[in-house]
Design goal:
about 0% strand; single chain
């Protein structure tokens, strides 16, 4: 092999390495986003539950106020 071929081979190896690193980072970020999505869904569910409970407490308080 001459120097040009060796240099081209070296560049292909570098590109392959960079591509693998980028793919790995992409998978890492995807897992982070999935975790964020899961936590967001859990927070939404908790907020809905809290809202429902607060409305129920308000109804009871209004009923008690009218009864007194």
């Amino acid at each position: 092999m001459n120097e040009v071929h060796l240099f081209c081979f070296y560049l292909r190896m570098q590109e392959s390495s960079v591509a693998k690193m980028a793919e790995s980072k992409l998978h890492e970020n995807l897992k982070k986003l999935q975790g964020i999505s899961l936590r967001t869904t859990e927070m939404q569910d908790t907020a809905r539950s809290f809202s429902s409970m607060a409305k129920e407490v308000l109804k009871i308080a209004e009923h008690d106020k009218r009864s007194s």
